[in-house]
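Quick log. Single chain, no ligands specified.
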Amino acid sequence: MNIPKDLKYTKDHEWIKVDGDIATIGITDFAQGELGDIVYVEVDTIDETLEKEEVFGTVEAVKTVSDLFMPISGEIIEFNESLESNPEKVNEDPYNEGWMIKLKMSDSSELEDLLSPEDYQNTVS
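-> predicted structure:
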């Protein structure tokens, strides 16, 4: 299982990469493996400001549909539109081409509540 060391994680199996006040978010390698073949990613919250732990979208796999939760508060400024025609990128490359949203953080202190790679590893092993 791939758990990059330069990211933060949530107990809901999202990852977050911070660059200034912009954060890129997706689901972890563990999550995509548990879901199975992903057939659809839906994010209807572009340009909305959501609070930490609110649902920002859903990911649909062959067997199930799962909600996607905000790891931190902020305004969703971009959706990875390539997932509309190629949702399998989430399975193939969850940390790069399979990213889901970018957001402008509203409270960077919330990052302190996220899991380190080591802590996340302990929750999934």
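The radius of gyration is 13 Å.
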